[in-house]
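Extended Data, panel c. Modelled sequence:
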Amino acid sequence: MRNRLPICFLATLILFITQVRAQIKVSDNQRFLQRTDGKPFFWLGDTDWELFHRLTREEADELLETRKQQGFNVIHTVALAEMNGLHVPNRYGDLPLINDDPSQLSVTPGNNPDDSNEYDYWDHVDYIINKAAEKNVYIGLLPTWGDKVAHLWGDGPIVFNEKNAATYARTLAERYGKKWNVIWILGGDRPVQYTYTSNGTEKQYDDRAVWNAMARAIEEESGKSAFITYHPSGGTHSNIKVMHQEPWLDMNAFQSGHGAREYDAWNWIAADLTLLPTKPVLDMEPCYEDHPVNPWDGKWTRKERGYFTAYDVRARIYREVLAGACGVTYGHHSVWQFLNKALYETIHTGDTLISWQAALHSEGAEQMKYLKKLVLSRPYFSRIADQSLILSEKGSNYIDLIYAARDENKTYAMIYLPQNKPVSIDVSKINGSVKNSWWFDPGSGKTYNGQTIKHKTTHTFTPPANGNDWVLIIDDASEKYVSPEY
């Protein structure tokens, strides 16, 4: 008779496996993220802010499966949603709170989705988080959108203070803090310190006490290993640096946003990495694909401003990553709001409506996995920006700026070219008497063999004739790195 493993051992084994898959953490050099087994974790996020609020179980399944197949590993979504999430019920007719009180979640006994008396708002949140875990996908969970805290724009209402913020966050942490695939994101598109004018009176606000109370409660319930970051308001005025010294803040983030193509977000990455203590950083909301460029002033036209394209998204995020970002967050303007004209008012859509189901398969969404494959194809934690690699004209703005990074050990370099033009590189900065080069197409994920370079200091590389933008890869041939083709 064969020996059987004791039930207690199996339970321990399952617990161990869960812990191995548990929270991501900051790498030893404090600039990147890694899994608990030490392997690199490249944050490839998707903004699905209204997921809990606007989708059914079946629709959520479709979203999660599609994004999993496209290589995304973090789904950003909000427990108390932006679009009147306290007063407009979810698709099952449920609200999240009792009397807008964050200390009282609206919960009912049982969780049978076929029984409306049992299946409540938080059962639906449970279902989606658990379904994401089945697909090995993390949920970047915002406890609330910032309009429930900050005295600024939005549906609100403001319902949080320091005391009930702690109670609410502790309740969520009791419910989700032990789930391996939950990452905590505070903030919700609002600054921490700001000035607001109401009825002609200008007043200074500082909401740190509320956000700190949430963070402390999460850590008290879930432990210091809980991964917590903050999603600030957009544009160059972002003041995440106000929170930089907070011990609970594991990763910095900013939002370059949808106001202009001109934002030099790669410089924001570089500047953030000079702060002490060093913390990883990423753009939590770069320009969304198919978002009208700056639609808020009433002057938008397709001809004058147009929409952000897949190329616009690539041109921003590839340079951010080579500047040192620990990942990227993609967004599509129809997906974050789950555009469904039959059910909801559409938000800033310019002159074109794209259903969220169609937008799931947009050009940019299908291309994000190529970037992840590229950066993980070479030594990861040793990647540093190095513009001195470029000896020809580097460019000066979002249209033409070439951006370069290399391995600290000089075994490879990656150079992003936003335009299809030759570039001269100081190849002496890469080890080896023989170097291999490759051309990586961000639009298709395909890689083309380039030239083999021997005993040279300067070499001029010419991209293939097709394609708008390219990544030039130069390797020390002795390392025998493989093609990063997807």
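The radius of gyration is 23 Å. This feature is highlighted in the accompanying rendering.
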